Amino acid sequence: MAEVRPTNCHFCGYCCAFLADVEDGRVVGLRPDPSRYPYDERILAGCRRWKMNLDVLDSPRRVNHPLRRVGERGSGRWEEAGWDEALDDIAGRLEALRRQYGPGTLASAIGGPHGSFWPLHRFMSLFGSPNNMGIGQICWNPRIWMDAITFGWTIEADVLPGITKAFFLWGTNPAQSDNSAFWQSIRGLRANGIKLVVADPRFTQCASLADLWLPVRPGTDCTLALGLMHVIIEEGLWDRAFVGEWCHGFDELAAHVRPFTPQAVGEFCGLDPQDIVEAARIFADGPAALVSGRGIDQVGASVAPTHRAICDLRAITGNVDRPGSCVLAEGSDFTPEVEFEMSDALTPEQRALCLNDGFTPLQSFEGYDAVRRQTEKLGRRLPMRYMTSAAPDRVLHAMETGEPYPVRALIVNATNPLLTYADTHRVYEALRGLDLLVVLDYYITPTAALADYVLPAAGAIERPIFQIHGGVANHGYGGPAAVEPYYGRKTDYDIFRELGLRLGQGEHWPQETLAEAYAAQLEPAGVDWDDYCASGIYWRQPAYEKHLLPGADGRPRGFATSTGKIELASELLPRLGGQRLPQQGRPVRLCSPDLVRRLEAEGAAHLPMITGARKQPYNASMYLDNPAFRKAVPQPVAEVSQATARRLGLAAGDRVRLATDFGEAEFALAIAKMRDDLISVDYGWWFPERGVPQAPDFGGIWESNVNTLTSCALEEPLIGTWAYNAIDVMVRKA
Ligand SMILES: Nc1nc2c(c(=O)[nH]1)N[C@H]1C(S)=C(S)[C@@H](COP(=O)(O)OP(=O)(O)OC[C@H]3O[C@@H](n4cnc5c(=O)[nH]c(N)nc54)[C@H](O)[C@@H]3O)O[C@H]1N2
Ligand SMILES: Nc1nc2c(c(=O)[nH]1)N[C@H]1C(S)=C(S)[C@@H](COP(=O)(O)OP(=O)(O)OC[C@H]3O[C@@H](n4cnc5c(=O)[nH]c(N)nc54)[C@H](O)[C@@H]3O)O[C@H]1N2
Ligand code: SF4
Ligand SMILES: [Mo]
After folding, report:
1. pTM metric for this prediction
2. What is the third-level CATH fold of 155-328?
3. Pick from 393, 431, 439: which is nearest to 415 by CA?
4. Nearest atom of ligand 3 to the alpha carbon of 15
């Protein structure tokens, strides 16, 4: 007889609630669980992934026991090792490398939010290395940094039918990135009379529903936001009472945006000036909510200014912490991530080893401390490891050259950097030269193919989930594991704990299991683990207008910034070498004049490029081996508009070869409705159907992998954001 147990899917960030039928420790059936959060019929109806859960749980491609490399790196020759043997050897080698080169010699790499990263970060903190690389600089951090600096903490959109009057989607396409729930609710917005405005160079499904589509030229969004503020101020549409009482630096901002007329901005951003005026009026007209995404997170130098400009746009229209616009998040009642990752264990000497030191003054311990002094006014701290993470460019440099000191070991946890980090050739060479590469994954990915050890990670259903998005809000969800990990797999927590125990970290890993650790995390909130699992959620509705609440002196507590107000002009950023007021940065160029000249002579065209537009049912480099998915989405494509195809003499289905100074890759051309003279290229592509990846082709990573074209050079001067969008490429028929 099967026993029914609650559990969760984790093929995307929703972590939908499921019920598993379990027999002898094996899941024999799985179905949605309407009794727990998160459950939404519309999500499931739009989701093609969830039925894969049982296949993935017992896929023949899964790694089930630790694998140790026996041949040359990448040769594809492995032997199974016992856990004790593997972890003893890894711990011994890490200890020896630390003795020889210091603790910074170990770096780590993470990717998207596939699980909890604090176990890795705790291990790194206690090991003494600040060198975690991640996706922080190009996903999440820019917004979190700029919100915290401008408003004193992070905000979340608050779309309320009947109250919200305008909804802006800016560089995000939830129709593909958000497994449908959000997408479905956007569909319903217009029925509620909410005006939808979409700023995106592609005519996405969201754009097709919009009242106004702004096909902005990639990377010019900062200027667009300044232009919207110009109109709002010129036309007197700003919220005088709110600005007068709660905003700092309005006159400076007004002078700053004066030159940004609709004509000038229209010209720069490639937009109709009248659309800019209309968008500004819509935003100023009433409670306006806004969600931004990757489209403005990955544009190099302009990333921080773009987010700052959007913060200012919200503030001058009074759209901050008010119903129907956005809410300032509340600090968490449960233990915040920053404590669980034990970042404070790093000594000043260890912090100084961080491979961003001196390059990215905000994305650094110095920047973190400056912001922390502000956020702590209201008793809050951002997670530290994401916000201080090292710059991949500097870590790769230390691997390549031994400067400023050698980085000789890397732990890769839940990411596939040969596909998803910028500049694949460089990543490949750097990883190949390491003394120790350890990869925790479900599969032998192209990156894992280079490893000394592949450690088999337990996935959803085999592990509990408490998803807290960095702990910047008072919100967590998920549930228990339905079964013990299959075969010899372990949770990431168990792996880092057991490695930590071998390296003398024992006292800092008091909980024996991940579930116990989560239970301890929830304890301060007064919630029992079993109760949490029964509902699937911990959530407290944040209040609005919290700046009006009385502070210690009885007066309104204001915002957690240096002036106590929303800083339209930042007092903090200039102290870190940044700007008081947002200014458009210079574009990133991947094609040198030489390359352009040479390839133009061969008939290639030089085009602006964006990459990585999300597409269901794939996720970055995952799920490409699902036969049903592949039938629906068989090959990597590069998209241009009809007019652009005609101008270039290309047709749908043509093979096109793309080149930059960094490499070349080939795609099938597709026609899409989008801005003219722009190419949008898929990312994450390799070919798992060719068998276990190994040298020299590693599952085809040199063929259609857009990151062979990109660069991780530090472009944004505060955060170090490199660029996946608003870059350039040479295009020719293959
Ligand atoms: N199916 C699927 N879903 C995913 C993922 C996945 O790999 N697959 N990945 C997850 C992850 S890690 C993330 S970070 C989120 C990202 O989620 P989103 O931010 O929603 O990402 P996209 O859906 O690619 O939407 C970004 C949009 O920005 C546009 N864009 C590109 N450049 C610019 C620009 O310069 N300016 C403006 N205004 N727009 C621009 C693109 O055309 C694209 O439509 O998605 C998550 N969800
Ligand atoms: N050119 C370009 N590059 C990009 C982007 C882009 O838009 N354009 N987007 C960037 C963004 S926003 C992101 S977030 C990254 C995403 O980059 P990644 O996170 O590296 O992408 P995935 O392919 O999702 O890789 C996840 C890997 O983790 C494994 N995995 C999944 N869950 C777990 C787990 O719980 N434990 C362990 N140990 N392993 C697990 C999977 O099997 C898979 O191999 O890509 C970035 N790179
Ligand atoms: S993939 Fe995402 S939306 Fe689909 S069932 Fe899993 S968690 Fe839910
Ligand atoms: Mo991401």
Report:
1. 0.98
2. Dimethylsulfoxide Reductase; domain 2 (3.40.228)
3. 439
4. 7
